[in-house]
Request: fold
Amino acid sequence: MPEILCASPGGIAPVSGANLINDRINIQISVEPGKTCLVRIINVGKYAGQAVYFEDHPFTAVEVEGVWVNASYIGDKSIRITTGQRWKIRHLHHARRQHDPRTPGYNPDQTAWLIYDMKKPLPPPPSSSTFSFLVPSDHAPLLKPVSHSILINTGWAYFNGVERTIINNSTYLTQLVLSLYTATTTPARYFFNPLIYGHVNPFVP
Reply:
């Protein structure tokens, strides 16, 4: 974490030294034909999101972040898992995890082979597309009506020669007073004025 928390990292997004599955690279996991497995997936990385893909056998998502969802058929697509996120899926075969690096020459892909027969050669790593639609199993309705919409556009820009992430064409700068302290100490007539919260992209309903 020190390199991420550094006040002047040069603006370049940090890239991990390696992409791991179960703390290893190129792992082989023995499986039994015909079995359906419940697989728990957790992204324990400190920065990068991961795309997880199972080749040759379709799989189904059943839980995300501790919330059971309708069994959602993923098929031959990948699922995107951000840092700290948890998924549970059913069925598995050939797993792949990847992210988009910013360091030339860095290999972002990591493949784990599920082995039915140790005597057969390993296939090449696969490619995939992303799946992104789930329904909670309790079918709780969406909160309506929507009275305030928030639009977020992200990107990159240079500030004083340093590349920084931007949200709605603005970057984050450390506040002199934390937003929570500002909200609890400012007079009520200023609560909804975004200017009092500093350069932090405030969204005030």
Notes: The radius of gyration is 22 Å. The helical segments are 2-5, 179-185. Residues 10 and 161 are 9 Å apart (CA to CA). The first strand starts at residue 28 and ends at 30.
